[in-house]
Amino acid sequence: MVCGTPLCLFRGGDGRAAAMVDRCPHRNVPLSLGRLREGLLECRYHGWRFDRSGACQTIPGLCDADPGRRGRSAESVPCAEQDGFVWVFPGSSDPPAGGPTFRFPCIDDPAYDTVRRSLRSAGTVHAVAENALDVPHTAFLHGGLFREAGREPIEIEVVVRSGADRIEAEYIGEPRPPGVAGRLLAPGGGVVQHWDRFILPSIAQVEYRLEDNHLLVTSALTPVTPTETRLHSAVTFSLRVPHALIKGLLPPLAGLIFAQDARILRHQAQSIERFGGEQFASTEIDVLGQGILRLLRRAERGEPGTDPSDDEPAERRLRMRV
Question: Which residue ranges form the domains of the chain, and what is each CATH number?
Answer without folding.
Answer: 7-88 (2.102.10.10), 113-321 (3.90.380.10)
